[in-house]
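agent> Task received from the user: take the single chain below, predict its 3D structure, and emit structure tokens. No templates, no multimer pairing.
agent> Plan: (1) validate residues, (2) run structure prediction, (3) serialize to tokens, (4) report one or two observations.
agent> Step 1 OK, no nonstandard residues flagged.
tool_call: predict_structure(input=
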Amino acid sequence: FTIQALELQVEESPRIQTLEDLVICDDDTLNGFAAFNLAQNTANAIGTQDAENLTVTYHETQADAEAGTNAIAVPSNYTNNTNPQSIYVRLTDTETGCIDQFGFTDDNSFTISVEAYPDLSTPTPLEVCNTQANPEANFPTGNFDLTQKQEELTGLSPVPGSISFTYYESETDLNNQENQIADPTDYINTSNPPMLIYVE
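)
tool_result: status=success, residues=200
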């Protein structure tokens, strides 16, 4: 008989890092479906590992991710099937063939969801006494706290911290997303009242 040495080598498997849930606001159809760029999670999946030989694919089921089958063909433009929906990630080292070993439930998945736009109601007028002395203005001025109308705008009391407000003096500024009111808690009107404030 002949004796030969057999070398055994264990290659390190890549590890999926932190994945981020993706949220998109619904469009005018309000149907709960939208196009997502799943590839936003590619860098998250690789993390600090050397990305040279790592490939990330996205799948609709855990079984497909583990088997490496039915990868989503165009992850940069994927429309959800349900709302919300789980997406499963497979991370492969193309040089060694090793994959993430899916160490625990949901460690290779993230959620995509389409959220409805928050409803805004028209609030009652905001009125203050003419206490602001402004000799350069030929109209009455006052200090307004625009945030006082947030509960009326949303119909929620208290207003959840997940809702944020931006205030504009004109519809043009609102549409162009520019010149937002810097301090809505201490706003001095810039034209003769009554004037409109636009809220996003």
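agent> Step 4: summary for the user.
The longest strand covers residues 85-93.
agent> Done.
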